[in-house]
Design brief:
280 residues; alpha/beta; 6-phosphogluconate dehydrogenase C-terminal fold; 2 domains; 52% helix; globular
Length: 280
């Protein structure tokens, strides 16, 4: 098994480490237009070799696209063109799925593509952030599986099983709605809180001296890169705006209750929020 990973950042790099170490792939080929990333990936043994895109595709059985979502949308149709007449399989790991699936829905080689999203990550980016076991016991979403061939689906499932992930099947639009609530909004909340504190910190220099574990965990995601998240917000704007409106509504309820010193209402709001623990 020869696997090409396009995009040697946190996700692509972490996939490469475990697919090789766990025997899924005999060789990992890396493709990235950032020479620093390729050098680090080679030195860290994330990949066995670096190649240009065309050569990597020609030598590979499985091609994994692990680039920001806007780059993935440009790459995917081109790669599907290049694998015509082969049994090569393509998958991506993007955080939004409906837009990508729409672009290639009528492509002649659509069945060789599996739309997927491993629900794992950290606030860090680049190949230096890549770690083994990042995906263990997390969920991997496969979207619109009926549009992929049995062979392609089986290979991608085997890949995620090698990464010790639980596989869940969803429609691409359903995925994007859920991702907006459980992933994308978490990042927006972290960005906004960080901006609010930094704005206040201009006048009150001691605020961050009081920061403890709770604050650090809440704003951890604010370290995430704009390069990755702006395309996600753009592609999933319909559902992201929906969840922002819901968030603002709940925030307004807290504000009103605090302003009016309504302890009963605050207790009720917090009690409702506590119910998330039953799910998690």
């Amino acid at each position: 098994m020869v696997v090409t990973i396009i995009g040697l950042g946190l996700i692509g790099g972490s996939i490469g480490l475990d697919l090789k170490n766990r025997g899924f792939a005999n060789k990992i080929i890396g493709v990235d237009n950032n020479i620093n990333h390729t050098n680090i990936a080679l030195l860290s043994k994330i990949v066995d070799e670096i190649s240009d895109l065309d050569t990597a595709i020609s030598e590979s059985d499985l091609i994994i696209i692990a680039t920001p979502i806007d780059a993935t949308q440009k790459l995917l149709p081109n790669i599907l063109d290049k694998i015509k007449g082969t049994i090569k399989v393509v998958t991506d790991v993007g955080s939004t799925k409906a837009g990508i699936c729409k672009i290639v829905e009528n492509h002649n080689n659509r069945k060789q593509y599996v739309a997927s999203h491993p629900m794992a990550g950290t606030e860090f980016s680049g190949p230096l952030a890549a770690v083994s076991r990042l995906f263990d016991y997390k969920n991997a979403i496969i979207c619109d599986e009926e549009l992929s061939s049995d062979f392609a689906l089986s290979l991608v499932k085997q890949m995620y099983e090698t990464l010790n992930m639980k596989i869940i099947f969803m429609h691409s639009k359903q995925h994007d709605v859920s991702a907006a609530y459980v992933s994308h909004m978490s990042h927006i909340s972290s960005f906004v809180l960080s901006l609010a504190v930094l704005e206040k910190e201009k006048n009150e220099k001691r605020i961050l001296n009081l920061a403890s574990g709770g604050f650090a965990s809440t704003v951890r995601l604010a370290k995430s890169s704009a390069e990755m998240w702006i395309p996600i917000f753009e592609q999933n704007s319909e559902f992201v705006l929906e969840v922002i409106d819901t968030y603002l509504e709940k925030l307004k309820s807290f504000r009103t209750s605090i302003k009016e010193n309504n302890k009963e209402e605050l207790t009720e709001l917090i009690s409702q929020a506590n119910q998330i623990q039953k799910i998690l």
